[in-house]
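Re-running the complex after MR caught last week's input typo. The corrected sequence lines follow. Everything else is unchanged.
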Amino acid sequence: MDAPPAPRAPADGTRTRIVRAAAVLMQRQGYEATGIKRIAQDAGATLGSVYHFFPGGKKELAVEALRHGAQEFTDLLRTGLDSSDDPAEAVAECARLLARTLRDSDWTDGCPVAATALEFIGRSPAIQLASEEALGRWRELLAGKLGAAGISDEVARELACSVLSTLEGAELLCRVSASEEPLHIAGRHLARLIRSF
Amino acid sequence: MDAPPAPRAPADGTRTRIVRAAAVLMQRQGYEATGIKRIAQDAGATLGSVYHFFPGGKKELAVEALRHGAQEFTDLLRTGLDSSDDPAEAVAECARLLARTLRDSDWTDGCPVAATALEFIGRSPAIQLASEEALGRWRELLAGKLGAAGISDEVARELACSVLSTLEGAELLCRVSASEEPLHIAGRHLARLIRSF
DNA sequence: GTCTATATCTCGATAGAC
DNA sequence: GTCTATCGAGATATAGAC
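Corrected-run output:
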């Protein structure tokens, strides 16, 4: 039997490395500020490879990068939500996880879709749809956790919406002010709100 | 006595028109997607005039545009907050005002700093500082309203932070999903949270 | 202060050898 | 699949007449 693959295999496919590099750059500075040449460079690939895998060009790559980043954010949320049976405590843990991730990355690794989504409101159906799907899945994930704790479906869906809104906004405030405070405060207030139902 | 000036004077200074046009475009699509030629065109000015008033170029204009947009957003918040003595009701009215403004503008006229701020986290001290100042003033405005209603200064400052986070995040969700729902839900939940103190 | 023309650069995208 | 060279367009910024 062969040795198991390394956790972060250097033999990751070129296509995967390109998508990952694009996702990171777009998360940090949005779509327009991110050049394809820089993406190729960070991915250790050439420009020709980028257009080989994404003949539709930058927009096509961006949609895939959004999906990739959204999946990683989903995993982070799931980790936080799985940390406790109490949904109020679980949401507070999500806020702590997000705050730690932001601080450890020098306030760069926030929501993977926010910056790009805001650049394309009403200007690109493909990008907007990918962003909407990401936000929708996070809302459903949160609603599921709240519903599993006995909150009615209707209330859970609305609460999930506000939890997501607050976490997204608090991330913006944290990044702009280079401080964990907004997310920590948000976590406490969201726990209080959830417990009031 | 001369006739009073028109409410929206066509004789607005060229400089003011440039700043306004820049603020609108940056609010809708961020900094990088906004070209100086387009700004000049929308302002009814020439490229030469832009560089005459802003010799520092696009970045210098952007800082001024952020300040201009922030002031307008402050006025909107103040209108909402003045609508009721009850801070819970006043915050809910702010959410309604933001939702209406978004819908009436086809989801383009949201927070005037969010898109640009996210493009420049850790990459431009001037832009980041202008964004931070805007968010800080909105937080103080909200904290003042809460404090005036008898909430302790410490609690009011923290509540104001979460109110702002939630409104910012709900605006993002509204714009991406082209729906007023997230802001309406946020208004109700924020009112409930405020009344719990 | 306003305007036109243009310099300079970088972008996304393509072509074609290997 | 990978690479280099390059195209054409559009960006910011500048120069200088008026």
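None of the earlier attempt is carried over here. The radius of gyration of chain B is 18 Å. Residues 5-9 of chain B have pLDDT under 50 and may be disordered.
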